[in-house]
Design brief:
The chain is of the alpha/beta class and 259 residues long. It has helices at residues 11-24, 35-49, 65-75, 100-128, 149-170, 193-201, 208-220, 230-240, 244-255; strands at residues 2-6, 27-32, 53-57, 82-85, 131-136, 174-179, 183-184, 205-206, 225-226. The chain has a single domain (2-255), classed as NAD(P)-binding Rossmann-like Domain (Rossmann fold), CATH 3.40.50.720. The N and C termini lie far apart (41 Å).
Length: 259
């Protein structure tokens, strides 16, 4: 099998690539906009686990990135059995203080390119009658929250889009799984190291390697959805019905922990 992992040079994407190579002996097409890091990761995983790795430098925020990536696979006769849509960004900013480029970057990565990759590689998988797609959403999909207005909206799109195509692809033997973790212990959220450590100790945040193990198990079982952590399941109904006064209070509190 071969897995295409986006955002594979660091964070959760690196953990996906590592787990697939180590635990499932899966060959890898690693896509990232971090050229040197990507090459290093590919060499390291190939040497450690004896799998074939292909590092591909690509800016997935470009309008035609998905088409270019799919065409690359066609031209090089690369058959993608597993698609891991992991590439993403995060920022905590009022909308009017966010540059248009950053705003567009998030929309392109989380919505346009992600959906196009599902469309293009999903068609190939459905035609072959097998395959797996794993998309990364977030608990924020249920949050109407200031400062992350674009992030939570795009994660809601990923959640609903993924669950919808689960129904469509199932009859072809193709699995679509969407994960909605809470906080994950990576540098993505911009928390200072001491607060990241505290969040993990309080089980508010989950180490990325634990998230990935759970996510891949659900993906290979072709489960529609996954959310790690009992606390997250308990918190979801609260997130959906948070009163306005608490949203404003939390917003002011969270802002002080950003770098």
């Amino acid at each position: 099998m071969l897995a295409l992992v986006t955002g594979a040079s660091s964070g959760i994407g690196l953990q996906y690539a590592t787990a697939l190579a180590r635990d499932y002996k899966t060959d890898l097409l690693l896509v990232s906009n971090q050229k040197e890091e990507q090459i290093a990761v590919a060499k390291d995983l190939a040497a450690k686990y004896g799998v074939k790795t292909i590092p591909l430098y690509m800016d997935l925020s470009k309008q035609d990135a998905a088409e270019e990536l799919h065409q690359y696979c066609v031209d090089n006769k690369i058959e993608v059995d597993i698609l891991i849509n992991n590439a993403g960004v995060f920022f905590f900013n009022p909308l009017i203080d966010t540059s248009m480029r950053r705003f567009e970057l998030m929309l392109m990565l989380h919505v346009v390119t992600m959906a196009k990759l599902c469309r293009l590689f999903g068609e190939d998988m459905c035609r072959r009658g097998k395959g797996y797609i794993l998309n990364m959403s977030s608990m924020s999909a249920w949050m109407a929250y200031p400062g992350i207005q674009t992030y939570n909206a795009t994660k809601a799109f990923i959640y609903n889009f993924s669950k919808s195509i689960w129904y469509e692809f199932r009859k072809y033997g193709v699995g679509v799984t969407v994960m909605t973790p809470g906080a994950v212990d990576t540098a993505l959220f911009g928390l200072a190291p001491k607060y990241r450590k505290l969040a993990v100790n309080l089980t508010v945040s989950i180490p990325p390697e634990k998230l990935v193990v759970k996510a891949l198990k659900r993906m290979f079982k072709k489960k529609k959805w996954g959310m790690p952590g009992v606390i997250n399941h308990l918190a979801t109904p609260i997130l959906k019905h948070t009163p306005d006064w608490l949203v404003f209070l939390t917003y002011r509190w969270v802002a002080q922990f950003q770098k």
